[in-house]
Amino acid sequence: MPDSNTLLEVRDLTKFFDTPKGKLHAVDGVSFKLERGKTLGIVGESGCGKSTTGRTILKLIEPTSGQIIFNGEDITNYSVRHMRRFRTQMQMIFQDPFSSLDPRQSIMQLISEPIREHKICTTSAEIAKRTLSLMDTVGLARRFLNSYPHELDGGRRQRIGIARALAVNPQLIVCDEPVSALDVSIQAQILNLLRQLQRDIGLTYVFITHDLSVVRYFSDDVAVMYLGQMVEKASSDNLFANPVHPYTKALLSAIPLPIVGKDKPVRKLITGEVTSPVNLPDRCRFFSRCDMCLEKCSSACNPTLAEIEPKHFVACHLIDKEKKDVQ
Amino acid sequence: MSKTRKTIILEGEEIEIYKGRSMAQETWRRLKRNKGAMIGIIFLVALMLATTVASFVYDYDKDIIAMSKDRFMPPSKDHILGTDNMGRDIFARVLYGAKYSLVISLGSTAIGLAVGLFLGALAGYYGGLIDNIVMRVTDIFYSIPYIMIAVVVVSMLGTSTMNLLLAMALGTFSNFARIGRASVMTVRDQEFIEAGRAIGLPTWKTIVKHVLPNCLSPIIVQTTLKVGSNIISASSLSFLGVGVTPPTPEWGAMLSDGRSYIRSSGWMCLFPGLAIMFTVLALNLLGDGLRDAMDPKLKR
In order of start, what are the domains of chain A with their CATH numbers? Predict the structure, then answer.
């Protein structure tokens, strides 16, 4: 029995897509543990496999290899049918509140759909009651019960998405860029709502985003992904205070700061393009864009995650060098 | 139009839940403003009523089939549309025959729609191998003219209304499979379909509840137009002798009968021909109206 505090453990999760040109490494050997009631932020640029990771955890996409262990249960090989029942445990909030809701269904139908499907309530009065209480929970006025999604704004739509996810009383929610399609003012409302829900119900989140300031505010742990791999993982405070991987450093320096004049820090920008994720050679994936390359980076194998200080993991050849320097 | 609604009383509070039919209501509201479509609907309803009444008023054996000595009578007071080469009243036959044309075209379209939509949805939703197999089979049927299919089916199974219906359904389904596939494919990749899966809906429920309602409008429009073209097909087949057999007052068969007397007694061909024309015109007007009414971009 693993320690009961771990809700989700992902071991060496891999997803390759077959393309005409070869194997596309969407997710390549991602591992992490997530404790109950905590939030893991996954950041990275577009196309780095963060969304695929989230969807693979929920088994919306079948993993190529690796293990997903939820609450001590290995769900990797659960059948589609079995997984359907298991969906009450883990849910997802989608990025785009405009396309993730069926335009032909009313709010009542949308929110009650998971309730009906998993027979959480059976009589229509109970279903209506639960729907309304969910609307209260996510802060949707009851008068919207019979409205259609196109009549509401982005924030309210995203609240519907959250209510749908909450309807089945899940333990884990994968949030796939839940606020990136929203206005900044509404982003804050939704983030506060998610955080409050975490406090009240004890939800566990996998929070996927490309917005570093959101991650800092929201996550306990942060994992940085680049081309399907985790390059650095640490507690949120630690990562922002002491980034080690050159990619993380570059990402953090790209956060706009409200400083002007001569105190303005010099930005470390990444040049070049992301390497194609198809048929990757076995070497550091950041090699072509890294300005701190060592000689061994061009030839040696892909660096693996190493713990450089408690709970701070980095995958980079530079650490080996630093270790040697210390010695 | 008032919405259907249901009221639930919850903890002393009255809550109204509308049963969502708003799409149909919206469409109807807009369709009512389209004169052509309304004329089409009125004509079709009148035709259905007339043929229903005709089946009670006229006796099939006595009025529709039996010969009399009043042959080749031009339109007159006794026979407003005249009589044919066997002395049968054309007015009675045209009205009575509407039943056959409508049943055959509606029936074959319905079968074609059900089969085609099922296959098309399957192909569009799953894609890959299933898509390839289904669509290649469909292509085979698509590449054969419906008249050929009908001739083959009828010569294999024999001439009867049921076989004609079947033959025409075979010629119709590929059309719906294509439209179904195309519309399902546009909806399939939208996020709300994945959201349905994330919630744990089985595939068939996702298709029925989320995919189909969102690709309904092109299918409904196509159905209306197809009913019209199937009336023509049925008549053409009967005209060629592979459809409904002569004593039955099917419009195409009546045309075929009148063909030999077209110079001396033109009304024998004229009236069944007009009946076909107006019915198909009505259906096309309705189909065009529906297309406009269901297009959300034209919302006013």
Answer: 6-89+170-256+264-326 (3.40.50.300), 104-166 (no CATH)
